[in-house]
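Build the 3D complex.
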Amino acid sequence: EDQVTQSPEALRLQEGESSSLNCSYTVSGLRGLFWYRQDPGKGPEFLFTLYSAGEEKEKERLKATLTKKESFLHITAPKPEDSATYLCAVQARGTGGFKTIFGAGTRLFVKA
Amino acid sequence: NAGVTQTPKFQVLKTGQSMTLQCAQDMNHEYMSWYRQDPGMGLRLIHYSVGAGITDQGEVPNGYNVSRSTTEDFPLRLLSAAPSQTSVYFCASSLGRTGGSYEQYFGPGTRLTVT
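Done.
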C-alpha cells in the first residue's frame, strides 16, 4: 500500500538551532516528491520538487534531499517566521493518470 | 492573476442538507483536485480531474460528487451532509499530467461544519 510517513509530528527549536524533518515513503512508480509549507488557516504553499535519488534543492534556510526511501528537509539557523506545518507528498502512477499522497505533516515551532 | 479561489470560506450545514463548494482557477491548469484535511490525517484526495469533462475518484469519494464542464471551474457537491464530513476542504490545480511540473497550487480552503 502506498504510504507517506512524516516525523516528528512536532518540533520545537530555538532560533538559530538547525534540525531536519523526515519523510519516508513506500510507493510504486514514484514520479516526484514534494514539500509544502502550510500556515494556520491557509492552503499549502509549494516549496520543492525532487524527482530522483541524490537530488537536492535549496531555498533560503531550507534544503531538501531525496534518497530511494526518504526525504529530509533541513532547516539551517531557523527564524520564528519559519514556524509552520511542513507537508511532504509523493506523486505516483494511478489508474486515472497520477495520484498524490500526503503525509500528516510536521508542525515546526521556532522560538526567538 | 488570482490563482485558485474557493467559496465560501466558512459554512455550517445541518445533517441531510446539500451544498456545493466552489473552486476556480485562472492559470489554465489541466489538473484540478479536491482534498479534505482532518487533524492528524493529512490531506486526503476526494476527487480529481485531468481536464474538462474528465473526473475520477480519489481516496475518499463517498458522499461527494464533482463535474468539470470548463477548464476553470471544479465544484464539489455534498449530496446529503453528515457530521463525518466536518473538515477543511482544499481545492488545488496543477499544470497537467503530461510534461511540465506537477506541483499543486492550493486555494485558501473552506471550513465546513455539519451539525
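The mean pLDDT of chain B is 92.
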